[in-house]
């Protein structure tokens, strides 16, 4: 799927400790989600599993195949592992991706916007990526990612498929995206950041998404309505919500983990979507905040 849109939610990344992808998968099965086996990424450093949602987005459970101590210090594999952008992240929701393109440079599009609006965000040139599925099929894509100055997980990276997206996100058979919870799609992704950095981060996200946020001053939230990979017309689109901590628990979470994803919520048959009168989100939903595996 080729696109130059920069606001299509592709997937959300949950890091689990080395070698625990299956354990995380079972925890989500116990919560009422259908989990699809993924495979091993190019280079063999990480493996994953997926929860595919009806809107075409998915959750990715990813873990390193071995702890860093498995590789001799200074060895090429150890250097590659240490250079991975998620190598020093604590387990939990660590990153999120929008759908990219293999034919158009998303990095150039965002950098041009940032130059015009002065937000300061910058993406590096696209790099190749891939994964081998358990059935042996080789998947290929390109990654557009922010530079090292910008914290991974605050602004998204982009994944643009070279091979068909259906290979990477197998929505067939339909049972792959049917969940006992009734979850149909992502309701919102909420990012936490320090109050003093909200303005600058909001400007950077506006450069990435391509739209200014809707600001709820009463709740100090900056909100963007995203699109979904399915392309099915619907009022129930995922929201990206940026806010400062609202209580001591959220302050502690931010102190421990730094800025990034705090909460993910899912639209569900059993928990219907409602649109608030002021057009700011008001949802009845499942929410998942803290890491499930420590």
TrEMBL record:
- What is the protein name stated in its UniProt record? Unplaced genomic scaffold scaffold_152, whole genome shotgun sequence
Organism, by scientific name, is: Paxillus rubicundulus Ve08.2h10
> The Glyoxalase-like domain covers which part of the protein?
9-195
């Amino acid at each position: 799927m080729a696109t130059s849109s920069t606001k299509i939610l592709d997937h959300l990344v949950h890091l689990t400790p080395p070698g625990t992808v299956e354990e995380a998968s079972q925890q989500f099965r116990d919560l009422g989600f259908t989990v699809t086996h993924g495979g091993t990424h190019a280079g063999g450093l990480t493996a994953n599993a997926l929860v595919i949602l009806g809107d075409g987005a998915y959750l990715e459970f990813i873990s390193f195949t071995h702890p860093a101590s498995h590789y001799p210090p200074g060895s090429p594999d150890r250097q590659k592992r240490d250079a991975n952008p998620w190598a020093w992240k604590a387990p939990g929701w660590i990153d999120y991706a929008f759908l990219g393109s293999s034919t158009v440079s998303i990095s150039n599009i965002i950098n041009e916007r940032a130059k015009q609006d002065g937000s300061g965000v910058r993406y590096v040139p696209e790099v190749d990526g891939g994964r081998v599925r358990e059935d042996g099929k080789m998947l290929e894509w390109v990654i557009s990612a922010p530079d090292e100055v910008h914290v991974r997980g605050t602004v998204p990276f982009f994944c643009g498929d070279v091979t068909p997206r259906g290979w990477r996100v197998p929505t067939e058979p339909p049972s792959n995206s049917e969940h006992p919870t009734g979850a149909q799609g992502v309701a919102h992704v909420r990012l936490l950041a320090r109050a003093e950095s909200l303005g600058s981060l909001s400007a950077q996200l506006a450069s990435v998404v391509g739209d200014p946020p809707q600001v709820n001053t009463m709740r100090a939230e900056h909100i963007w309505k995203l699109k979904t990979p399915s392309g099915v017309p619907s009022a129930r689109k995922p929201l990206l919500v940026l806010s400062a901590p609202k209580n001591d628990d959220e302050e502690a979470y931010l102190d421990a983990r730094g800025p990034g994803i705090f909460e993910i919520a899912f639209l569900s048959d059993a928990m219907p979507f409602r649109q608030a009168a002021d057009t700011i989100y008001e949802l009845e939903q499942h929410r998942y905040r803290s890491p499930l595996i420590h």
